[in-house]
Each structure stands twice: as structure tokens, then as C-alpha cells.
Amino acid sequence: MAFYEENPHKIDSADIVAAIPSFSEAEGIGYVVEQVDRGLREHFGHLKSVIINCDNHSSDGTKEAFFAAPGQVPRMYLSTPPGVRGKGNNLRNLFEKVRELRAEAVVVIEADVKNVQPLWVKNLAEPILKGVGYVCPLYVRHKYEATMTSSIIYPLLRCLYGRRVRQPNVGDFGFKGKMAEVFLDSPVWTEAVQNFGVDIWMTNIALSSRMPVCQSFMGGPKVHRVKDPYAHLNVLFQQVLSTIFDLMMVYADFWKQVKWSKPTALFGTDVHEVDTPILVEVNAARLHERFLEGYDEHSATWPRIFDQTVVPKLQEIHGMGLQHFSFPTQTWAKILFDAATAYHKMNASERGTLLDSLLPLYLGKVLSFVKKTERMSLQQAEEYIENECTIFEENKPYLVKVWE
Amino acid sequence: MPKILVVDDEEHIRLLYSEELKEVGYEVITAESGYRLLETIEEEKPDLVVLDIKMVDYNGLDLLQDIRNRYYDLPVILSTAYDTFKEDMKSIAADFYVVKSFDLTELKKKIAMALETRLPT
């Protein structure tokens, strides 16, 4: 697909590819390139490396900033055609280039990260060079950061594919060069995957590929240059969830065989200084309002989607005030299982309505999590999430039954 | 009959675990320290390891790292007298953990879960 390529060093093979996907990141990409360059030289100086900027034809000078950044590792620039956006499209260009370069290891780091360090390159690439197929980073996170991951993505992927990967949707990762072929061969290449869905799409495919997957501790939080987590919530929610549901249809024969879950190997535990997470404030009253608004808007849809025991439970939850608000995890698991099954069985044109109707329920679940964990430490909140995952796993036979 | 390796430096714990787990039908072998643990695993090929975290000469969490790096899917259950170990990131590479007790109900439940965990190969 690459519409445009600039390869000033005429690179035609590489051991390690470090990729930086971007769209209009002229302001921040130079810093990321500099750190990635240092990481490659400090930790993999004996190997042949290349840094690739996979861009969406930015017009703000991203390409110029990429090439102008200080460093010594050769660089290459790839771009989608004008008007073609999305991280997924950038990564598709990357997969094709990785195949062409016959790279052993690939590291992807987002262009808008403010605090990337050379160590990140080491922690994402080293496990790959030791034989792992796919690496997800493990950043230090506040208990209320990435609530979609804590309440949907992690428990769902864990109970489906049987592997405990705590931050499967984080945007940075490492993978074996051969995985590029697996990604290119995937039957699912939707608009969602071309955009926000691509991160979970990759992890999902890796989990079902039978390649060893590991997590790598990064020693601190990931800080984006500017990012409002709620700016694209509706679109992000739809794209991530539809990608998981689409892949459930492809890998049904795999996940139906999975029982309980297993941990992954953990790299990067030799980090000496661990940073504290960035505080995330949550407006509980606003979450409650959005749950109630969404209930009024979507409750007529739910009886067609959910098991008959779910709707009365939702009515009960709706009647709770903010002070006593609680959303049982078993109900939440059943909602996601029923929704995935309905998504699988309905026409593609109806799926958008289903996904829209899940958003207020997700916000209700987040509110419940916030209320249950407000006095908990980070560690205690993590244990709470682990218990929720066990509830998902215990209820998985229900999913297998209704799916069939 | 699944074979379980119990690694603990306290003799009474090894005896207790051994007797109770044999009673419910497991084959049990024991090790009193982490010394040559990977070699023991290689030779004995256990189906599951119950690993004490705090031994006199060995840190169970470091041993867990070694096991996990070599045996990607070997179930490991951490056994500990204190739950402060959970603050250490390394503990997430374990399948489960149990707090040491004379009542082995929880340990037996976790062993059964770990042994029946199934992933397509």
C-alpha cells in the first residue's frame, strides 16, 4: 500500500526495525527518534538496525523532523496516500516493509510519547531476540488509567485466549519479523482495524497464533504529549470492541478450547528505579449521569441482546443512587458475552446500534469499579481486577453455550 | 497421576504438603532449596511446582523468573507466609499464589485449576 517511500541509505535488509507510526507529529517525533536511536546503539549496536517512520502523509513537517533528529542509525520514511489516515494503515505499510527487509525483531513506539527512553527499545526487542513472538509493555499505571482495558479488554481477552496480558492495547510493542506475515494474512481488515482497533487486533492475533507472548516491564508510566482520553471515547469504544468481536468469529475454534488462563513470562524486572503513576481524576457524578442518559436512550435495545436475567438486573442498577451504585461483575461478563454472541449472529448493519448501547453500561461498570476501589492502593485495585477476571473465566462456559 | 514438586526450606511444610497432596492422588516430590532447581525440573519433569517465596538462601520470585524463562507453560503456585510479595512485579509470572496454612483447601483448589487449564497447542 505504501504510496511514498524515502530510503536515503538504500536499506535492503535489517536485523531490527524500530517503527514510529505518526500523523502530524512534527513537534514530538524528533525526541522519540533520538531516544530510539540511542536505544538501538546502546543495546543492539552489533546488529543491523533501521528506524522507520510510518506516516499518514502529514503536512506539518513530520517527515522533515524525523530525518532532522540527531542520531546515527539509518532511517526510512513510508507514507500512506494523501487522505488515507489511521495507525492501522501505517502499520500495514510497516508489515510489508518488515517482510521485505527480512527483519528478525520489530519494535513499535508511538510518536507522541513524551518520556520514551532507550531502555524501552531494549525491553521490547530483547525478548524477541531470545525467541518470544510478541511483547506487550507493562507501564506503571494509575488504577483509573485505561479503564477500558481494565474492565473490558483484559478480562475478555484473558478468558477468551487464556493468556494473562495486562496491557494488551497500549500502542507500543515488539514482535518477531515473521509475525508480519501473520498480520498481513489476517482475514479481518476493517475500518476499525485501520484506525484505533489495530493495537488490540495485533495482540489478539498474536494470542491466537500460538507464538510465545510475554510482557516487559518498562519501569514507569507512558506519558503522551497531548491526549484527552475522552476526546474520541465513542469511536475508540466502537472500534476496539468491534475488532475483538470480529476476531472472536475468526478464532471461535481456538477460544472455545481454552479453559482458565496462564501467566506470561515477564522481562525487564531488573529496572532499578520505578516511577510513580500519573494521577487520574475521575468524575463519578458525570459517569453516573452518562449511565442514566444512556439507559434512557438504549434500554429498549437490550432485551433483544441480553439474556432474560440481565435486563431486570440493569433495571435494579438503574434504580440505585450514586452513593450505593454497584454493577456486579457477573452481570457485566454476561453482558459482554451476550453482546459478542448477538454481534456474531446479527446483520453487519445492526452492529453499530449494539455497540452504541454498550457504552453507557461500560461507563456504569467503570463507576462501580471506582466506587469499589476508591480507598484501595494500586496493588489492591489490581487484585480486585484479577478477581473480576476469574469471574469472567468461571462464566466462560455460558459464552460457549450461547455462541453455539 | 500428576507429579507435583514442592520447593520449601521448612521441613514440616514439605511433610504436610506431601502427605495431604498424596492423599488426594498426586505424586509428590520435594526439594529443600532452590539449589539446582532447574536441573531437578529437567530430570523429574513435574506437572506443577509449588514454590516457597522466602527461603533462607533463595528468593522464590527470582526462581520463578528462571523457571518461566525456560519452561513457558509449567504451572507454578507461589506459597508464602506473607502477602507483601504481591508488591513485587515478578509475582505476576506465577499461575496462582496461596498463603501458607495448615488447611490446604485453597492450595488443592489452585492446583486443580492450574492442572486443568487448557490452551490449544
Structural class of chain B: alpha/beta
For this structure, what is the CATH homologous superfamily of chain B?
A: Response regulator
Order of strands, main sheet of chain A, comes to 1-4-3-2-5-7-6-8-9
The CATH homologous superfamily of the largest domain in chain A: Spore Coat Polysaccharide Biosynthesis Protein SpsA, Chain A
Shape of chain A: globular
- Number of helices, counting only DSSP H or I runs of 4 residues or more of chain B: 4
> How many domains of chain B?
1
- Count of the domains of chain A: 2
The poorly predicted ranges of chain B are none
Biggest β-sheet: strands ordered side by side in the sheet of chain B: 2-1-3-4-5
Q: Kindly state the mean pLDDT of chain B as a whole number?
A: 93
Radius of gyration of chain A: 21 Å
Structure in words:
The complex is a heterodimer of chains A (404) and B (121). Chain A is α/β, with parallel strands linked by helices and 404 residues long. Chain A has two domains: 264 residues, Spore Coat Polysaccharide Biosynthesis Protein SpsA, Chain A (Alpha-Beta Complex), CATH 3.90.550; 120 residues, no CATH class. Chain A has 17 helices and nine strands. In chain A, strands 1-4-3-2-5-7-6-8-9 form a nine-stranded mixed β-sheet, with helices on both faces. In chain A, strand 3, helix 2 and strand 4 form a beta-alpha-beta unit. In chain A, helix 8 packs parallel to helix 9. The longest helix of chain A is centred in the last third of the chain and has 23 residues. Chain B has four helices and five strands; from the N terminus they run E-H-E-H-E-H-E-E-H. In chain B, strand 3, helix 3 and strand 4 form a beta-alpha-beta unit. Chain B starts with a strand and ends in a 5-residue tail after the last helix. The chains are: A alpha/beta (404), B alpha/beta (121). The interface between A and B is medium-sized, with 23 and 22 residues.
